[in-house]
Amino acid sequence: MKTSGLLDQLLKSGQDLLQKQQSGMGGKPGGGGLSDLLSGVGGGSLGKALSGSGNSALAAGAMGLLLGNRKMRKMGGKAVTYGGLAALGVLAYKAYSNWQAQQGAAAQQTPQTIDRLPPAEVEVHSEGILKALVAAAKADGHVDARERQLIEAELGKLADADLQQWLEAELNKPLDPADVASAASTPEMAAEMYLASVLMVDEEHFMERAYLDELARCLQLDPQLKGELESQVRGVRA
């Protein structure tokens, strides 16, 4: 099962939607503001992991249905600056490094975020992040029976049967922050999963804010690290 290509496509699909909407309204499509940061990220490992985008585009379409137009537009506004999976790693790295500096230790280990990992580990992190995104998309309880049928019909087009079954299982699970958090095998992965969740939800919505707080607790995030991750997303929004 290959999740990194789907995840990268998904993180960029909100940008595509926003740009089409802006073009239709006579506006100007946005540009990528993190391109300088992303040049040479990960020594090419992440790029190798993101091959096979055709199948990923199909799955991203199904995920777009799950997220709904409101969330895709909101996500797209951030993705114009955000830039995809590699950028998520960059922001997680910055937040984690800032948090480490706040701890005051003389020597800190370099955070092993997704932009700095070999392809096999990229896949492990991608699965956890995608799990977090699916859950975050359900945090406002907006997925009804009709939408679920449409999503499952789109997932049925996937050539990757394992990925199809996995996504359907995640979609049909009750919302459970503890289950989501159980996928985090490293502190950096936990940070990436929370960052992706913050990217997705509306922090001003009571149910979604409560979900984020409970997810952070289940991920055992230090409150200062939690704040740093949220600050990185706010910086992208600006």
Summarize this structure briefly.
The protein is mainly α and about 240 residues long. It has 12 helices and no strands. The longest helix has 30 residues, at about 55-80.
Number of domains: 1
- Global outline: globular
Tally of individual helices:
12
* Count of DSSP strands: 0
Q: Gyration radius, to the nearest Å?
A: 17 Å
Distance between the termini: 36 Å
Order of helices and strands: HHHHHHHHHHHH
Parts with pLDDT < 50 across at least 5 consecutive residues: 25-45, 47-54, 76-82
The structure class reads mainly alpha
How would you characterize the overall build of this protein?
By secondary structure, the chain is mainly α. The protein has one domain. It is 71% helix and 0% strand.
Topology:
Elements: H1 4-24, H2 35-38, H3 45-49, H4 53-82, H5 85-103, H6 119-137, H7 145-155, H8 161-172, H9 177-181, H10 187-200, H11 206-218, H12 223-237
Helix pairs in contact: 1-4, 4-7, 5-10, 5-12, 6-10, 10-12
Q: Which key features would you list for this structure?
A:
238 residues, mainly alpha, 12 helices, globular
